[in-house]
Amino acid sequence: MPDPITHFAVPFIAMRLLKKDYKIAVLAGVVGILPDFDVLSRIHRSVTHSIVLHITIIAILACILILSKVKSNIRKWILIAVAFGLISHSVMDMFYDYTPILYPILQHDILIHVDVSIHIQEGQIPQILPKLEILLRETNFTSFINFEASLTTGQTIIISALLLFTVLTEEIYNGINNKRIKLSRKEV
Questions:
Q1: Distance, CA of 93 to CA of 101 (rounded, Å)
Q2: Residue 105 pLDDT greater than 80, yes or no
Q3: Model pTM?
Q4: Which pLDDT value is given to residue 169?
Q5: What is the predicted pLDDT for the residue at 21?
Q6: How far, rounded to the nearest angstrom, does the alpha carbon of residue 83 sit from its chain's CA centroid?
Q7: Is 54 within 8 Å of 86 (Cβ atoms)?
Q8: Whether the Cβ atoms of residue 119 and residue 129 lie closer than 8 Å to each other
Q9: Helix axis angle, 51-67 relative to 72-94, nearest 10°?
Q10: Which residues form the domain of 67?
């Protein structure tokens, strides 16, 4: 299962790569974690993982932002951050386990299983074996008695750290270049 760090890191990094400031990136990251708060109702992967609900939330938020007279450029990026955070969460989960991503339009949870393996045998040409399965099961929101899930894994920490390092390295590089440009302008 994508863990909270992944659900935060993916939308956060996406916003930073789009050159958005940290407030927008953090908003996207935090919103990326929110669908998993359904565990507080003792049901995991509930309606909070449905893009139908996500679109409804985004539409309501858009109305609130318009009425609050938030500047249109800021409003646009808040909506993009919220949309990306919510939708990326459910899409990532759908590649790990059954997810009610189209509920209530589709009364089935969807799991997309992708696997690309290689078969190497002496004396034969190596074969790439792609596999794509789209699996459905009837949606059943049943409360749990016991819930245990990993908050993070070593693999997630490494991948997230490498992605964050990439973004931060670019920002440091750009900061150094900006200082050089300012210095060279003062000399002229």
A1: 9
A2: yes
A3: 0.84
A4: 84
A5: 87
A6: 10
A7: yes
A8: yes
A9: 170
A10: 4-187
